[in-house]
Amino acid sequence: MRITSRRKTMAFFLVLGISLVALTVALTGSWIILNWRERVLLFFGLVFFLAIITGLILNTIFLVREIRRNEQHDSFINAVTHELKTPITSIRLYLETLQRREVDEAQRQQFYKSMLDDTDRLLGTVEQVLKAGQAGYKRATRVPVEVDFGRLVGECMELARTRHRLQPEALHWQGAVNGREFKVHGDPEDLRTAISNILDNAVKYSGAKVDVSVEMDAPDDKHVAVRVRDRGIGIPPEDLKRVFKRFYRVSGRSFAQVKGTGLGLFIVRSIARAHGGRVFAESGGEARGTTITFELPRSGA
Ligand code: ADP
After folding, report:
1. How far is the CA of 265 from the centre of ligand 1 (A)?
2. Domain end: 139, 167, 194, which one?
3. How far is residue 109's CA from residue 103's CA, in Å, rounded to a whole number?
4. 224 burial class (0-12, 13-18, 19+ CB within 10 angstroms)?
5. Are both 188 and 63 inside the same structural domain?
6. Which of 115, 184, 198, 256 has the lowest CB atom count within 10 Å?
7. Claim to verify: residue 211 and residue 253 sit in the same structural domain
8. Distance from the CA of 73 to the center of ligand 1, in angstroms?
9. pTM beyond 0.70, yes or no
10. Are residues 125 and 53 in the same domain?
11. Under 8 Å CB-to-CB from 122, ≥6 apart: which residues?
12. Whose CA is nearest to atom 2 of ligand 1?
């Protein structure tokens, strides 16, 4: 309902903007014809005409952008509320059951485990929101150190396997890593956050069959890159760049079932940029899998 009314508002302002531009063109056009012989008047008229038209166009673009941004804020708040509410409701249910009923030891342990999983989920969401808040600022608190990037990626893979309860072959290396140097300069904690976000997405958007490969590469002698490839639902071509914007989530049926806040890739891009690197997405389109490449300058380059 709200989205439809927003769309209507947007359409209204768009039509209003275009109509105003058309009206100004018509008015000024007739004025120019009437004053054809008055050179000075014509000159100033044209200057004002161009200024008004530019202003109107800029105004319309600004309005449409603001409405879009508001829409994204709304869906972000809905997503975050959902991500906070679901685990809290679940924990509450387990606690009520423990309080009211006698449960055997095995079941009690199962409840504890589920509650711990729920608190992890809560913590994950809160951390993402906090990190996204920090991402806008250039931090100078932590001193960059030399990081063995290959090893760091390996540790993140191990963590992702545990977190998503994956078999080793579901998330595996592609190509050799051992014996190759992938040293970078940076903040290990931020780099871990970035790689973990990319891996979590690869698993999350893979559907039931997770098959994620991770490849370390040196595109040239100044850079190192990690490429995370999944065989999941993929990203439509028009969204490949937009997914890195804050709050942006791809809309569509297959994506709607997967929960998220739209902050993960924004955080990844901020971390890449803060390290002088970049990140980009490639995909053959919907249901064709996705490859995310995270590239950093090589240490000492
Ligand atoms: P979210 O919390 O929604 O996962 P992200 O910023 O991490 O937020 O990702 C933004 C959007 O990009 C996601 O909503 C999803 O639609 C798309 N996306 C990210 N990674 C993948 C992937 N590996 N495969 C398919 N879609 C992806």
Report:
1. 7
2. 139
3. 10
4. buried
5. no
6. 256
7. yes
8. 16
9. yes
10. yes
11. 84, 87, 88
12. 260
